[in-house]
Write a structure and sequence with these properties.
This protein is α/β, with parallel strands linked by helices. Helices cover about 30% and strands about 20% of the residues. The protein is built from seven helices and 15 strands. It has helices at about 10-30, 30-45, 95-105, 135-155, 170-180, 220-230, 270, and strands at about 70, 75-80, 110-115, 160-165, 200, 205, 210-215, 235, 240-250, 250-260, 285-290, 295, 300-305, 310, 315. The strands form two sheets. Strands 2, 3, 4, 5, 11, 12, 13, 14 and 15 form a nine-stranded mixed beta sheet that branches. Strand 13 (about 300-305) and strand 14 form a beta hairpin. The protein starts with 8 loop residues before the first helix and ends with a strand.
Length: about 325
């Protein structure tokens, strides 16, 4: 294995085009940030864009929409659901690494990324705090393409891959719709153009009963209020909590479930607006098993350290 620094500019461009940033970093034993920094320097010097192999092509398209429910049927098997990855260029979080590992190991029927796959602070409605340095939207998309490609590879063929849109994801198209509405039909303007292998929607409806969506109610009792007010079992993200709150009434028992977050809870995207306050969040995701179309009680994967997660009474290296 040679050194990244020994590659000529042409060799680096060819490697990046062929492998993508994550596999380039792995092959040469360097961090993702090192790969991105060399790419930025080379682009600035030559004026030529260096693309990863996962970029979508095309020009014009019909206006996309978000279906109310993406139907999913699981009679017997497992699905893995994570939320709030807030992917930036750089090292992947322990939860995201574990998410990919568990997909390989458990062989789920479906994988759901329940919103806020990216953060998009530069196109937020909130003003910057001081002189904070945030990545360009293009850099976030590329890092997410790389991560989702690895998720797709781990899942293999025949596994449903679904992405209910999150409020941070919506920033991408909202910014363009507000300022450049005439670009609406140009391919690449819409977020999911860059992730063609993922089904989109506002929510997922499993077995005509369980609802997976990014957010519904807010506050301390969001999980129980989600199940109470919707009348359905509901799996959400958004609040970065990891809880299960069953609601039992004359209709039976239904669970309100919050997934935790795939991002590190001390992700730099959160640093300034949280003002270094303690964060009552949990990094992790959920594993959901179905038998005869009935969802069994959920199982959580929880990050315990930079290199371990807890699941079913075991510490697992990631």
């Amino acid at each position: 294995m040679g050194k990244l620094s020994s590659l000529t500019d042409d060799e680096f461009s060819h490697t990046f085009n062929s492998l993508g940033p994550s596999k380039t970093a792995s092959h040469y034993g360097v961090g993702l940030r090192t790969v991105y920094e060399r790419r930025r320097r080379l682009e600035a010097r030559t004026g030529v864009s260096i693309k990863s192999p996962f970029a979508a092509g095309g020009v014009l398209q019909e206006l996309p929409d978000y279906p109310d429910h993406v139907p999913l049927t699981v009679k017997d098997g497992t699905i893995i659901v994570g939320a709030d990855a807030h992917i930036w260029p750089g090292e992947r979080s322990p939860a995201l690494r574990a998410f990919i590992k568990f997909i390989k190991d458990l062989g789920p029927k479906a994988v759901i990324l329940n919103g806020d796959v990216m953060d998009f602070p530069r196109i937020s409605r909130h003003a910057p705090i001081g002189w904070e340095k945030n990545p360009q939207a293009s850099e976030e998309i590329e890092a997410a393409q790389d991560a989702l490609h690895d998720i797709e590879q781990a899942a293999g063929n025949g596994v449903r891959k679904i992405w209910p849109v999150g409020n941070h994801d919506l920033r991408f198209e909202s910014q363009i719709a507000q300022h450049c509405p005439e670009y609406a039909r140009i391919k690449g303007i819409h977020l999911y153009d860059h992730f063609p292998n993922w089904e989109r929607g506002w929510s997922v409806e499993i077995n005509n009963w369980v609802i997976v969506k990014h957010r519904y109610k807010s506050g301390k009792h969001a999980a129980s209020n989600n199940a109470l007010n919707s009348g359905r079992p509901m799996i959400t993200g958004h609040l970065h909590q990891q809880t299960m709150s069953p609601i039992t009434d004359y209709n039976g028992t239904r669970d309100g479930i919050e997934l935790g977050c795939l991002a590190n809870i001390y992700h730099p995207a959160f640093r300034n607006y949280t003002e270094n306050n303690p964060r009552n969040w949990v990094a992790g995701f959920g594993v959901f098993t179905f038998r005869d179309s009935v969802m069994l009680p959920p199982e959580f994967v929880r990050v315990m350290s930079k290199t371990t997660v807890a699941f079913r009474g075991e510490l697992i290296e990631v």
